């Protein structure tokens, strides 16, 4: 390998590394910005409820129960947001379509019973046909 080629390869590698670093930094910043926004919105909802209760004729014991109920719902919502959806959460009903990269299935969510269409893609097929980006896949 010649000196010019080696230097060019290092610049390309360095450039790719810098792109990955920038993408990771952006992801982390967005994640924490969203976390702070969620915390602020949660505080705001509690504050609104407390103000409404303070200006109402609701007994103190009932006010405490309503605030605890809000906290319980907020906690459950946060738990649901953290849950990653996976194929095991669904029951396959039937295949409703096939394509070059996979198939579309009609599925029922096990928890709610709602019906959804789920696209199942073959990553190997997409890679062989050059349909995935070189970053992250």
From TrEMBL:
Q: Which UniProt keywords apply?
A: ATP-binding, Kinase, Nucleotide-binding, Phosphoprotein, Transferase
Its domain of life reads Eukaryota
Q: Could you say which residues form the signal peptide?
A: none
Give the Protein kinase domain ranges. Answer: 90-137
Reaction catalyzed:
L-seryl-[protein] + ATP = O-phospho-L-seryl-[protein] + ADP + H(+); L-threonyl-[protein] + ATP = O-phospho-L-threonyl-[protein] + ADP + H(+)
The entry's ATP-binding residues are: 119
What would you give as a GO molecular function for this chain, any one? Answer: protein serine/threonine kinase activity
Q: Which Gene3D superfamilies match?
A: Phosphorylase Kinase, domain 1
SUPFAM superfamilies referenced in this protein's UniProt entry, alphabetically: Protein kinase-like (PK-like)
Xref: PANTHER family: CHROMOSOME UNDETERMINED SCAFFOLD_135, WHOLE GENOME SHOTGUN SEQUENCE, MYOTONIC DYSTROPHY S/T KINASE-RELATED
User: What protein does this entry describe?
Assistant: AGC (cAMP-dependent, cGMP-dependent and protein kinase C) kinase family protein
């Amino acid at each position: 390998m010649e000196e010019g080629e080696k230097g060019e390869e290092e610049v390309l590698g360095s450039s790719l590394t810098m792109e990955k670093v920038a993408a990771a930094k952006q992801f982390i910043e967005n994640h924490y910005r969203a976390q702070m926004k969620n915390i602020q919105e949660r505080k705001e909802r509690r504050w609104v409820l407390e103000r409404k209760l303070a200006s109402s004729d609701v007994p103190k014991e009932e006010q405490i129960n309503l605030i605890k109920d809000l906290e319980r719902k907020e906690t459950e919502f946060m738990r649901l947001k953290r849950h990653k959806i996976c194929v095991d959460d669904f029951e396959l009903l039937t295949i409703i379509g096939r394509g070059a990269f996979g198939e579309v299935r009609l599925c029922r969510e096990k928890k709610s019973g709602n019906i959804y269409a789920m696209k199942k893609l073959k990553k190997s097929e997409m890679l062989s046909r050059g349909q995935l980006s070189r970053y992250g896949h």
